[in-house]
Write a structure and sequence with these properties.
By secondary structure, this protein is mostly helical. It has helices at about 15-35, 40-55, 70-80, 90-105, 110-130, 135-145, 160-165, 170-190, 195-200, 200-210. Helix 1 (about 15-35) packs antiparallel against helix 8. Pfam families: DUF489 (PF04356).
């Protein structure tokens, strides 16, 4: 991913929540794109994966590569959502499902611990191979399959069946979903709650305006 200027992380809780939530919906958007076309925007993809393989970043802005535009795909989805514009319903379904699964994960301490151990191992892989190497992507996909996928509530991915069965495609989709979980946890850590999306829409809109 080409370097971009580092912007200091926003200080307001709403802006940090907006960036984290943008990561969730960026993951949802890339899952949809992968399932339909087999391709994804490189910058959007690398931002999510790099933010996922480093479970203990030095700063908030390190999680998304230091520039809000690295999360532009997700920010655009959020802007449509808060502006009551027509957004892709499949992407919205994936995004809100990721938030639901994150809450289930938070309620399962054993799974949280297991996932933390897996991500620490994957971080070592990423340092050796590079964050988007297929070994790392395969490990992220496996981590998702062995943890989040065991919940009764699951995300059913719609797309081209022939594409979804190609080499590394299931792993890439699951890696994207894992990234969505990672950013959903970040959103919650920054004070994000689902009820705020309904009752504090104006605060989110102002935060998005500041990030645009």
């Amino acid at each position: 991913m080409s370097p971009t200027p580092i912007h200091r992380a926003p200080e307001t809780p709403a802006a940090r929540q907006a960036l984290a939530l943008a990561g969730v919906f960026q993951a949802a958007s890339l899952v949809d794109e992968l399932a339909r076309t087999g391709h994804v925007d490189t910058r959007a993809w690398e931002t999510l994966i790099q933010g996922t393989v480093d479970p203990n970043p030095d700063s908030f802005e390190d999680i998304y590569g230091g520039h809000p535009n690295n999360l532009r795909r997700g920010l655009d989805v959020l802007e449509m959502l808060v502006g009551r514009q027509q957004a892709n319903p499949v992407v919205l379904r994936y995004g809100f499902s990721l938030l639901l699964l994150m809450n289930k994960l938070r309620g399962n301490r054993n799974m949280m611990d297991t996932l933390g151990q897996k991500l620490s191992h994957i971080q070592g892989q990423a340092e050796h191979f590079g964050s988007t190497h297929e070994n790392v992507i395969a490990s992220l996909g496996e981590a998702y399959q062995e943890t989040i996928s065991t919940f009764k509530t699951r995300i059913v991915v719609q797309g081209d069946p022939s594409l979804l069965q190609t080499r590394m495609m299931p792993e890439r989709v699951r890696a994207c979903l894992m990234a969505g979980i990672r950013f959903a946890l970040l959103w919650h850590q920054q004070g994000g709650r689902r009820w705020k999306l309904m009752f504090q829409r104006n605060a989110l809109r102002r935060a998005l305006d500041d990030l645009s």
